[in-house]
Amino acid sequence: MTNHLHKGDLPAGLDLGAVVAIDSETLGLNTKRDALCVVQLSAGDGNAHLVQLDRQRYDAPNLKALLVDSAVLKIFHYARFDIAAFKHWLGVDTKPLYCTKIASKLCRTYTDRHGLKDLTRELLGVDMSKQQQSSDWGAETLSPAQIDYAASDVLHLHALRDRLEAMLAREGRAALAQACFEFLPVRAALDLEGWPETDIFAHS
Prior knowledge:
alpha/beta; Nucleotidyltransferase, domain 5; six-stranded mixed β-sheet; 7 helices; 6 strands; 41% helix; 16% strand; globular
């Protein structure tokens, strides 16, 4: 396993295949306030590519092209947050999408534990460390611990998708999951427009 750190953008010509696992690190959970700092990606081959963004310009044409490429499926865990950040800070609409958190909620109805750490432990037998989750991702130089943490968030998403796809099919909810994934850009837009905690489909 190798972690590749890229400054500013993905290298030109880097081929990550037709299915890419993606995550991001920000300075906090308020999308419009807390800057997008790092985007990490994996082709599912055990290697991770981390892009440490230039927060003065956010000029990352290769990364942006990948995010909007209709031929590349992007796997996230809690895609709603990441794609809202990409929309606000990079100005792109990310799709097509697969969200392991949504998939988990649709097929793992026997539990209320749908975090990435819980999923990887149960479905893959992997115990992830979340120690660096709240560290300073805006630092000029990322520590080896930060890099390893960021990489770990994407290295297991392909395998999780495979397991969750089988469970969704077993429960007859694959089409429902796909419809949810296709709605995610709209949900992220609602978040950015001021309806983050409002269920607009509710009666009241």
